[in-house]
Amino acid sequence: MAARYDLEGQLKKDIDAPVILFENVSKEYQQGTPALKNINIEIRKGEFVFIVGSSGSGKSTLIKLMLKEVKPTSGKIYVAGKQLSRLKRWNVSKYRRKLGVVFQDFRLLPDRTVFENVAFAQRVIETPTRKIQKDTPRMLALVGLSEKMKSYPKELSGGEQQRVALARALVNNPVILLADEPTGNLDPKNSWEIMRLLEEINRRGTTVVVVTHNREIVDEMQKRVITVRNGIIVSDQKGGYAYAKNQYSNI
Ligand code: ADP
To answer: How far is the CA of 61 from the CAs of 71, 121, 242, in angstroms?
Structure first.
């Protein structure tokens, strides 16, 4: 078989290696109770995974660990071919570009147009203008916002703002899309639109990880669901909230 190389030209030892791997990961913040206790997670390229659990269970800590915003107290984390503890400080921003991230509160630049919000993600990595002129409209078309390129965030509905955030997260072609409560501020119709887009993005090959409280969506979509409770994974299986709900109250 011909040797295979990843984007940085490194020989891929294992083409099927997990794109996210947590090995015996624990996290204790300086004050307070342990946030995660001996977590093991393996997510393969192209998967669509929900992470669910009540407030304070450790979901955001999982996302922050993946982004290398916080360090684990013990254990190893590999994301997109990198062991995060080995990543040098000056390589962290380059690493984070492999991940597209969307948040509950959209985090758009209020004084820039929709086009500029998406283009900005490309400008910071010095994408040539010609490529920006091509990629930004293409991403805005994917999320159905071709007509709104010149609008400002405050002129858009919540659902539209989240779609801009999605276009921005995707424009640099990330390996993984992390969505932290992406429908938390949206009504059911807009929530479904965002979830359908996430499904479409996943169909195109991006690994998608969604933290959510939205039981209805999780139950309906029948994807892999990782349930966290008090820093422990209490269930990891395809399906909805139902299994965990029956087994453990208060999730
Ligand atoms: P979730 O996202 O599921 O609501 P978090 O990961 O935010 O949960 O929190 C898990 C636990 O870690 C909670 O007990 C929370 O209070 C604690 N925690 C989170 N961030 C910090 C921090 N910066 N300092 C101290 N404790 C924290």
So the answer is: 10, 24, 24
